[in-house]
Amino acid sequence: MLELGMSSDSLPENDNRPSRTEAEQAVRTLLRWAGDDPTREGLHDTPSRVVRAYEEFFEGYETDPRSLLERTFSEVEGYDEIVLLRDIRFESHCEHHLAPIIGRAHVAYLPRSRVVGISKLARVVDAFARRLQIQERLTAQIANTINDVLEPHGVAVIIESSHECMTTRGVHRPGVSMVTSSMLGVFRTNSDTRRELMAMLNRPSACEY
Ligand SMILES: [Zn+2]
């Protein structure tokens, strides 16, 4: 049974983190495992490049997602309708194959009294996406964090993505997308609120303006 959104919210213990040299050595081992020669010219700098890429792919471990939501605004003239940020592109990696998961997240909440800067919602998505993930947990962690910190009337997170471990290996099924959602508070209990959210999601995008 998965403990969605529980254990890996907190930053992992880093006491046993290997050195950069050890990480580069591990890449050389994988290059040899693939059947190539890590000493040939074209692969000479590959271990250091891969380690730098890993720093970027997994920089979410360095971020506390809750702290991103601490600064809020309460002067909202009584605004008490859904706030939706949609089509937040993200890149993550599946924890089973280290293969990319590329997709879009839609994040909505119904504020109680405080709103947060919209870029912060996108940064929460990145803070969890830039870790080793499964999509179900990614979805739940984003929703639970917003719910815990902002204490809104409700939170909805919908994620659509393509998993390269499914498109480029294994069953080789390109064009398949996976959709997950987490509905909390009024988005779970009130079908009118959920319908309103779906209507907002189905509107044409305003991105070109
Ligand atoms: Zn996978």
From TrEMBL:
What EC number(s) is this enzyme filed under?
3.5.4.16
Keywords recorded for this protein, A-Z: GTP-binding, Hydrolase, Metal-binding, Nucleotide-binding, One-carbon metabolism, Zinc
Domain named GTP cyclohydrolase I: which ranges? 24-201
Q: Could you tell me which Pfam families the record lists for this protein? A: GTP_cyclohydroI (PF01227)
Q: Which reaction is the catalytic activity of this chain?
A: GTP + H2O = 7,8-dihydroneopterin 3'-triphosphate + formate + H(+)
PROSITE patterns recorded for this chain? Answer: GTP_CYCLOHYDROL_1_1, GTP_CYCLOHYDROL_1_2
In terms of InterPro entries, this protein maps to: GTP-CH-I_C/QueF (IPR043133), GTP-CH-I_N (IPR043134), GTP_CycHdrlase_I (IPR001474), GTP_CycHdrlase_I_CS (IPR018234), GTP_CycHdrlase_I_dom (IPR020602)
Its UniProt pathway annotation is:
Cofactor biosynthesis; 7,8-dihydroneopterin triphosphate biosynthesis; 7,8-dihydroneopterin triphosphate from GTP: step 1/1
Q: Which domain of life is it from?
A: Bacteria
Q: What class of enzyme is it?
A: hydrolase
UniProt GO MF annotations: GTP binding; GTP cyclohydrolase I activity; zinc ion binding
Region named Disordered: 1-22
Q: Which Gene3D superfamilies has this protein been placed in? A: 1.10.286.10, 3.30.1130.10
Q: Which GO terms describe its biological process?
A: one-carbon metabolic process; tetrahydrobiopterin biosynthetic process; tetrahydrofolate biosynthetic process
One GO cellular component this record assigns the protein to is: cytoplasm
Sequence positions that bind Zn(2+): C94, H97, C165
Report the sequence similarity comment from the record: Belongs to the GTP cyclohydrolase I family.
* Subunit structure comment from the entry: Homopolymer.
Q: What is this protein called?
A: GTP cyclohydrolase 1
| Lineage, opening ranks | Bacteria, Pseudomonadati, Pseudomonadota, Alphaproteobacteria, Acetobacterales
